[in-house]
Amino acid sequence: MRYSYLIPEWFFGFDIGMEILFAIIAFSVALIAFKINDVTKERKIKLFGIAFLLISLSYVVLGALNFWFVNLASEGFRMVDINEVQLIGVISLYLFMILFVGGLVTIAYITCDACKGKTYYLIFGLSLMVIAASLYKLVTFRILSTFLFSFIAYHYFEEFLKNKNRNAFWTLIAFALLFMGSVNFILSPVYYWFYIIGHLFELSAYLIILAILIRSVKK
Amino acid sequence: MSRKRNKLEIIKDILEVIKNRNGKIKPTHILYKSNLSHQMMEQYINELKIKEMIKEGKIGNGKTYFITDKGIQYLSQYRMISSFTQSFGLEE
C-alpha cells in the first residue's frame, strides 16, 4: 500500500491545527453526550457519544500522521507519504480509517430506528471489509465516508422537515458540509486544492457543531 | 391539536408531577396528571425505577413513588438535554 498527497507549504500546519480543533470539538460533543447519558441512560445518546469519541480519536491519529509523515516534495509543496516500509504509518492510517468509519457507522446506525445490534456489526464489518479488499484503500475509505455522510445528512434533512427546529436545521447544514468536505477529499490526490477546500468545509461544519453545542449547554 | 410528546418529555412531565407534590405521589395521581394510558404509565414508571429517578415506597397502605436526586437532576438539566437531543435528532 502506498498513500501520498501534496500539501502546499503555506497550508502545512493549518491542516494539523484544524484536525486538532475538530478532535477537540468532536470530543466536547462526546463529553456532553456522556454527561446527558449519565442522567437519562438513553442508549441512543450513549452511542452518539461513542460515535463522536471515535471521530475525535480519528482526527488525533490523522493529525499525528500529517505531522510525522511529511517530507519536502518540491518547491512550495510538502508531501505526506506512507508506504509499507513505515509500519507505524501504515498502522496509524488503518487506525484512522477504522476509527472514522466506526464513528460514522455508529451515527448512521443511531439514525436507523428499525436497526438492531446485529445490523451494526453487519454495516461496520462490511465497511471494513470493503476497505481491506480494495487496492486503493484511502480512496475507497473516502468514498465510503462520503456515502455515510450522505446517509446521515439525509436523515437530518428528514428530521428538519419533521421538527422545523433551528438547531436541527444547523445540524443538517453541518453534516451537508461534512459530506461536501468528504467529496473534496476523494478528489484531493488529483489536485491539492481539493485537500484545502475539504478542510475548509470541515472547519465550517465543526464550527457549526460547536455553536449548536454551546447553545445547548447554555440552556 | 397538541403535538405528540417524545419520551424525554413524558419522563420530565412525570417527574415534575411528583416534584410538585412534595416529591411523593400515588400511582393514580400520576395517571391523572401525566395524561397517559395505564399501560404506558406502568412502562414509564418501571423505566424510571430502573434508571433510579424514582423509588417505590409505602405510605400507610398505598403504594407511593418518591422522586430521587437523580430525578431532580434530570429536571434541572432537562432544557439542556432537550436542546441537545432535538439538535442531533436523538429523540425517541
SSE inventory with pairings:
The complex is a heterodimer of chains A (219) and B (92).
Chain A: E1 2-8, H1 14-40, H2 43-68, E2 70-74, E3 77-83, H3 87-111, H4 117-133, H5 137-163, H6 166-187, H7 192-218
Antiparallel strand pairs in A: 1-3, 2-3
Chain B: H1 7-20, E1 24-25, H2 27-34, H3 38-50, E2 54-59, E3 62-67, H4 69-76, H5 78-87
Antiparallel strand pairs in B: 1-3, 2-3
Molecular structure report:
With 219 residues, chain A is mainly alpha-helical. Chain A has a single domain, classed as Rhopdopsin 7-helix transmembrane proteins (Up-down Bundle). In chain A, 78% of the residues lie in helices and 9% in strands. Chain A has seven helices and three strands, in the order E-H-H-E-E-H-H-H-H-H. A three-stranded antiparallel sheet of chain A has the order 1-3-2. The termini of chain A are far apart. Helix content of chain B is 58%, strand content 15%. Chain B contains five helices and three strands; from the N terminus they run αβααββαα. Chain B has helices at 7-20, 27-34, 38-50, 69-76, 78-87, and strands at 24-25, 54-59, 62-67. In chain B, strand 2 (54-59) and strand 3 form a beta hairpin. The longest helix of chain B has 14 residues, at 7-20.
